[in-house]
């Protein structure tokens, strides 16, 4: 069955495109106007606003660039990335220009709505005039006839229903089932059963979104760490209707938070909490899809699927990243950059435009990821240049004689050692550096630039004295620490094995360039990212600036495919020596063995295994009784009451509840000290549900880069204090 493909509207002829576009816009504006006068259609405004903002501006930019016949996946990915860039620039422009014209609330619905519609009309005019000569086509969308398609589409709904049952009735049965089904999909691809190749992109997006929703939707409030500060900054824009770019917080300079979230919230009429919990996962789930497409174009579909299954199986993807909205958006732009970088068929000018646009969008989305990517570009570029120069400077009789010297280890297959036009060039790196410096040095009082300078100074001052020291090198501390149980020790071995597979895969790729069609730019950056992984273990204060798990997650953006290549190389080497391996269960082919291994990896990371055997459970979604930064309505209500009092007194709070209060006012809360006598008088003490029910407080201590925590009796801290608030889920004391 084939239907007209609305996801490739940029390929339509101008007349059809114009009338279809205006019809969509008319419906959207009509639904918004009906909503404003009180005639609300459930979900209509939210859904149409999301589609309008996320897809249509980017489609117009693609048409203005005359980029056609990209295919459905690339068209969707590029249009979303360009749309987000347009929205962030629109928010920045409105915040800069309107106050000069006397409008002091640029982030108000009326002004922002009219501005976005006007910007879209300008883009429509540019698209139609610049693409006037395009003859147009009628690309069709193929609806998969496989029964796997509806099954995969149901996975996100299973996650939604499962989180509802968890929150309301403390039932996690459906979430258990969801994780088991995802594991079965992984095995099915490895065994080449049930899931056809045509469904791989759908499977990637559906599984990624399901994993994100199975954690993001727990609780009716944001949960985690940094996201509470991000929510505070968003409210700091929405309440006054203006973004104060001088507030000296690193996060305050990130348009992915202070511009993008307010725009989605105002236009869709969604509370920022639900923008974070519903809309951002829809965007972040595109990251695995973009990476899958990049890997598939360089290898094949099954290697692409298994590498991305490895990528989103790692727990950081659906736990830590849920509480880092700015990094979610930045990773989308990095994934799009990778996809553009490996495309050697695109016109160079259009390719340069996309790479610079995505670079700027990444810079204004997350400083940490931008720094890591930039500092990997320089050595990767040098590696490519030296490789090229070495090849051309060697005598031809040496490079041409087999067995003596390969022409170029980084050259792709089929080139005879000759490099094709490189997409990682010095002007791109210089533009990236200039944009990063200008943005980070001017916005938010230059705190983002000062932060990386401070980290660099700390690393330099301790590099030679504290390398390999577990108290300063967080990665080394994780490797050398004693696991709580034998099962957790086995999980650590599995994690270390993935690092070994990546190393073997990189070596195999370098040794057999004629087999693995990895583009030189991708391979060069991957080699640098492997060194970043090593630095996270060895270099003091390097991984702790982000967290080791986040650093590893970032490097997997490039390194995940090499784990699959390494697994295939090891399997083939083992089979060459021990033929009986192929008759062992789950070892019939390399793909079967790898799918079984990474399904085990997934079951450990998701916490399903620990939950089943009740062995120190780790899952945010499956474990409902532990002390985690997941806050219920009564805790939020208590925090709101506390800050609504308007009395500027310090508030003492323990290590977990500290993050909840951070979302209300980052200046007033203080960590509860280990000694109760150090708590000052005339201060508040905030207890959450865990404190009240367990009569326990989490006390944290930091030694260099390592944080440790112990729990102590709460009774020592509430003696001689008066309870001034209690809602059976949170309490406030005062003395």
TrEMBL record:
Transmembrane region(s): 17-41, 47-65, 77-101, 107-128, 148-165, 171-190, 202-223, 247-267, 274-295, 301-317, 352-385, 423-440, 523-545, 551-571, 583-604
What keywords were assigned to this record?
Answer: Membrane, Transmembrane, Transmembrane helix
Determine the domain of life of the protein's source.
Answer: Archaea
- Quote the protein name from its UniProt record: DUF2206 domain-containing protein
Q: Which organism is it from?
A: Methanoculleus oceani
